[in-house]
Specification:
The structure holds two protein chains of two kinds. Chain A is mostly helical. Chain A has a domain of about 70 residues. In chain A, about 55% of the residues lie in helices and about 0% in strands. Chain A has six helices and two strands, in the order ααααββαα. Chain A is rod-shaped and about 180 Å long. By secondary structure, chain B is an alpha+beta fold. In chain B, the strands form ten sheets. In chain B, strands 17-16-28-27-26 form a five-stranded antiparallel β-sheet, with helices on both faces. In chain B, a hairpin with a 6-residue loop joins strand 27 and strand 28. The longest helix of chain B is centred in the N-terminal third of the chain and has 28 residues. The radius of gyration of chain B is 38 Å and the shape is elongated. Classes of the chains: A mainly alpha, B alpha+beta. At the A-B interface, helix 3 and helix 4 of A face strand 3, helix 7, strand 12, helix 11 and helix 20 of B.
Chain lengths: ~200, ~600
């Protein structure tokens, strides 16, 4: 049947016969293009899972960074506080009064008059005067003055001749004659030191 | 069995009722519940939704102040006169600490060096949730103490910001720098005196703030955060030289105490720039411990205190006369023993008629001679000269409470007043004003505004001050300044002058003594006490520094030459050496003083 049919219709040409014939002829065998589903599903799963895990990791690492940042910030605050404390200590040590007192203890004095030594020519300009303790300026803080109420003028009275003066004199005379053991020791020690 | 079964059935039926009825009841119940929800929704969303949103946002949101660091006050070499350190206050919540008060008090009194009994009391204050235990503790120390306390199980202690202001040089320049009092509760500074006060906002900067969300004490990344950075305060650089200021204060103290005087000032100025290297006052206070001192001392007395300058002012009178072309430094005068005007005018030493040149009048500090010379002025001429020298108006260097002195004007300026002003009585000045006036001679007749701020800085009232804003103007001619300098050199001469003690060996020094009667505060009249002073500059032929030393009410009978002169000599010698100014090596002025 299939062999006769074209012959029968060939006599009666139709519009777009060839196309029709071709269309008829292109009945394709059913082709099963089965795309493998597994890779796709795997891919999607992997992307999903990767995304979720990645996000989680990212978040965790951010949190970690945040912990670290907090800890480091605290450390920085501590260290800068420490630095400042040390700076203050240093500045207190550089207090001109303290430096001057330390210099004084080593015997330095402030010179009376400036003089300059030219290193190239060896010439001295200015009047050279020895710097002595007398020419120095006292720098120690003076002790606080006592208020006037606590520091009254001394009251002077003319003492009357005491009636029992003789006894007193005798008393003192006795003591001078017989020094105690302790006093004797003091004396000898003093003498030795003097020698 | 049956009847009972029947009964149960009936009962069940009657309880359930008909399905329609049940549905209706159910619907009603649901409607009621939903209307409750709706009401609540309206309440939440309609009435004040913002406060709820705020509450939700506040949960877990931290709002912190980012403190601005206060600027330092530095000397001309960058040495700190005042600087800021992070500090903390330790505070307690007595509600939590009351139970363990003795233990906590013992622990803290050891750690923070605070009073045990006082702390104990504060830890037990009833009905309070906030008590200061220690203020302005260095941050490291405070944190350590509180942390250790927590480890020991003491609860209710915490720390808060409480910045510390340090004055490492203590009393050095305290009169100028001023100090900060104990900070306010929020940590804001309380400026109480000096530059700290007049430049408070310049130094303070602007606090910033940060808002961010936290979870479990850590900042939530990617959470809402707004940060306004703090703007730190600017450093204030002064023209003061810390070491020189220190030395000047010690010399001044020694001078005042040695003369058994009340007080004194010492001003050292760079002759060429008008920069103040030193403004020393005695008595003064320790800025790191101000409350130990009388609060009368919290000032720059060299600027706030006015007095009559006395003979130092003759320099201004005579140089003006030379500038006006009335006399030269060789003009001859016959000086009588006493000059009778409205009141008799005497010299400080007894003499008959003597013949002095103008230089001699200055060198020997003759009041009579100065008045005779001053008679050459036209009416009002001296006043305009003195105004040009800067008397009677504030120097405006940036210290609060400066007094402008007193220069009589209008009707008060009578010929009699002028006679007294000729030799420095009847007008009042402050020490910096006078130093700047004398410096005009040192600077070849051009007055430079004195300045204490290097560069430029704005005061709280908006005025910009500093070396950038210094103005110069010519007061007297260069020739007049030169002639005056020659006269002033004769003051130091052991034979011709009155102040050989002010000499600096090897250098040419020009200067002038002053011994003025003081106006007592009690009577408002001359009370028989004196102000002695010495102003001068060196090297005389190329001036570098102008120094002015003032001592009020010396009780050892000394005058300007014997009290202030040696102090001047010490300070000038030290300053010249410190700045490496060698002697000029020229011969000093030999201008005749007598004829």
């Amino acid at each position: 049947m299939s062999s006769t049919a074209p012959q029968r219709f060939s006599r009666l040409p139709r519009i777009a016969e060839a196309a029709v014939a071709r269309a008829r002829l292109t009945v394709v065998p059913r082709r099963r293009t089965r795309a493998p589903r597994v890779p796709f599903v795997t891919l999607v799963s992997v992307i999903l899972l990767g995304g979720v895990v990645g996000l989680l990791l990212f978040n965790t690492s951010m949190q970690q960074a945040s912990f670290a940042a907090t800890a480091l910030e605290e450390q920085a605050t501590d260290l800068s506080a420490r630095e400042q404390t040390l700076q203050i200590e240093l500045e207190r040590l550089r207090d001109p009064q303290r430096v001057a007192e330390a210099a004084k203890r080593q015997g330095l004095v402030i010179p009376a008059a400036p003089a300059f030594l030219d290193l190239d020519t060896g010439r001295i300009t200015g009047e050279v005067q020895p710097a002595t303790r007398e020419s120095d300026t006292p720098i120690a803080t003076p002790p606080p003055t006592r208020p006037a109420e606590l520091d009254p003028e001394p009251i002077h009275r003319t003492a009357r001749q005491p009636n029992h003066a003789r006894g007193g004199v005798a008393d003192r005379g006795d003591r001078q004659q017989t020094p105690t053991l302790g006093e004797q020791r003091e004396h000898t020690r003093d003498d030795r030191r003097r020698r | 069995m049956r009847p009972s079964g029947n009964g149960r059935q009936r009962r069940r039926g009657s309880l359930r009722g008909s399905p329609v009825f049940r549905l209706r009841v159910g619907l009603l119940l649901i409607a009621m519940v939903f209307s409750l929800f709706a009401a609540r929704l309206v309440q939440l969303q309609g009435v004040d939704p913002d406060s709820y949103a705020q509450m939700a946002a506040d949960e877990g949101t931290v709002d912190v102040v980012l403190p601005a660091t206060r600027g330092d006050i530095l000397d001309r070499n960058g040495e700190p006169l005042a600087d800021s350190v992070d500090g903390l206050m330790v505070v307690a919540d007595p509600k939590m600490t009351a139970e363990q008060a003795p233990e906590i008090a013992r622990f803290l009194s050891k750690k923070l060096d605070i009073d045990y009994f006082d702390t104990l009391q504060r830890l037990r204050v009833p009905d309070s949730r906030f008590q200061y235990l220690a203020r302005q503790v260095p941050a490291t120390l405070a944190k350590k103490a509180v942390q250790e306390a927590e480890e020991r199980g003491f609860e209710g202690l915490s720390t808060r910001r409480d910045p510390v202001r340090e004055y490492p040089a203590r009393d050095v320049a305290a009169n100028i720098v001023g100090f900060l009092g104990t900070p306010r509760k929020n940590g804001a500074a309380r400026a109480l005196a000096g530059l700290e006060d007049t430049f408070n906002s310049f130094l303070a900067g602007r606090d910033g703030r940060a808002r961010y969300r936290v979870g479990a004490g850590n900042r939530i990344p990617l959470g809402d955060a707004t940060v306004t950075e703090a703007v730190d305060g600017e450093d204030l650089t002064t023209t003061l030289d810390r070491d020189l200021q220190w030395y000047a204060q010690r010399v001044l103290r020694q001078t005042v105490l040695g003369a058994r005087a009340d007080s004194g000032h010492a001003v050292i100025m760079d002759s060429r720039t008008g920069e103040l290297l030193t403004v020393a006052d005695y008595p003064t206070y320790d800025a790191s411990n101000p409350y130990e001192y009388d609060d009368d001392l919290y000032k720059a007395a060299a600027l706030t205190n006015v007095y009559e300058p006395g003979s130092v002012e003759k320099v201004l009178t005579l140089s003006s006369l030379i500038d006006a072309g009335k006399v030269t430094n060789r003009t001859r005068f016959e000086v009588p023993g006493v000059l009778v005007k409205d009141r008799p005018i005497h010299d400080y030493w007894e003499h008959g008629p003597i013949r002095l040149t103008l230089a001699g009048i200055l060198a020997k500090s003759s009041n009579i001679g100065t008045v005779l010379a001053g008679d050459h002025f036209r009416r009002g001429q001296l006043r305009s000269y003195l105004t040009a020298f800067g008397l009677g108006k504030r120097t405006g260097i940036g210290i609060g409470g400066e007094s402008k002195g007193r220069l009589p004007k209008g009707d008060q300026w009578t010929p009699q007043t002028e006679d007294r002003i000729d030799f420095g009585q009847g007008l009042a000045v402050n020490a910096v004003q006078m130093a700047a006036a004398v410096n005009t001679i040192a600077n070849g007749g051009v007055r430079i505004d004195p300045s204490i701020i290097k560069g430029s800085a704005s005061m709280d009232d908006g005025t910009e001050v500093g070396t950038d804003h210094v103005r110069r103007h010519r007061v007297i001619s260069e020739e007049a300044a030169r002639q005056t300098t020659a006269m002033m050199e004769r003051v130091i001469d052991p034979e011709a002058g009155v102040a050989p003690g002010a000499a600096v060996p090897g250098y040419r020094v020009a200067g002038k003594t002053g011994t003025a009667q003081r106006v007592g505060s009690a009577c408002g009249c001359y009370d028989g006490t004196f102000t002695v002073s010495f102003a001068g500059f060196a090297p005389a032929d190329d001036p570098r520094f102008t120094i002015y030393v003032v001592v009020h009410n010396p009780r050892n009978g000394g005058g300007g030459g014997s009290v202030a002169g040696p102090a001047f000599s010490k300070l000038m010698g030290y300053t010249l050496r410190r700045y490496g100014v060698p002697p000029t090596g020229t011969r000093p002025s030999r201008i005749p003083v007598e004829w």
